[in-house]
Amino acid sequence: MSFRFACKDGRAHLVVGPDNNVVDLEKASDGHFTSEPIDAFRRWDEVRGFAASCTDPGVPCSTDDLNAPSPWPSQVFGIGLNYRKHAEETGAKIPDTPLTFTKFPSSIGNPNADVPVAGPAVDWEVELVVVISKGGRDINESDAWDNVAGVCVGQDISDRALQLATVPPQFNLGKSRENYSPFGPWLVDAKDLASKDKLEVVCTLNGTEVQRETTDDLIFTVPQIISYLSGIVQLLPGDVIFTGTPGGVGAARKPPVFLKKGDVLESWLTGISHTVNRCV
Ligand code: ZN
Known about the structure:
The structure is a single chain. With 280 residues, the chain is α+β, with helices and mostly antiparallel strands. The protein folds into two domains: 4-67, no CATH class; 76-278, Fumarylacetoacetate hydrolase, domain 2 (Alpha-Beta Complex). It has seven helices and 16 strands. The strands form three sheets. Strands 1, 2, 3, 4, 5, 6, 8, 9, 11 and 14 form a ten-stranded mixed sheet that branches. Strands 13-12-15-16 form a four-stranded antiparallel sheet, with no helix packed on it. The chain is globular. The structure holds zinc ion. Residues 78, 125, 127, 156, 242, 244-245 line the site of zinc ion (ZN).
């Protein structure tokens, strides 16, 4: 079983076994690690080593009780128009530079958080989410995956009206309402993934599939994004990157479809993680 990491009650946990039991990292390590998720990301190689030797069976835990695996990162990046098919459906030209915006950290909700429908044009975007381990500046593409703690699924929930309210548009606020950045419920260590350059994201709305794509359709790959961002800003332990959404968002449908109260969004990173978000 791959090494998995989660956060519960604000504390770092390992996820173990077929029943997804959780192990409190500070307690299981007799204080060698702190309870702080950020501290685990800073010392990721050590945590991985500890997880490999940990025989604690853990305690049962519902994914509804988990926090986002990196619940208070310093920085949250979103990449727009990063799948060829999604760029085509929006009528945009294929970007030659990663279209980067921020999702403010206060928008992070629990993985299965309720999503407030704040207006008439709130949309879904299922995404591969990556969390940075030690980070740094000027990270080469060839070293990029070594700076990723793990991957999971997330939703870059987007208030399209707010996202496009100004000329030129500033995406940041439209993507940062309360619980508009749910991801999780756990990270799977990137080192354990043979298929990390071809992962599948899937999204259903009320049980009907609306998005499905593999990350080999990405215009900018995870290593390219990390290399690009770290050439400009320092990437810090626990930083979160929403890597872009594939085709099938509501705004691009004819006619457009937006979220309404009572809708249920389910999201998968196939074989890795699954979240459920109810619209309220
Ligand atoms: Zn997005």
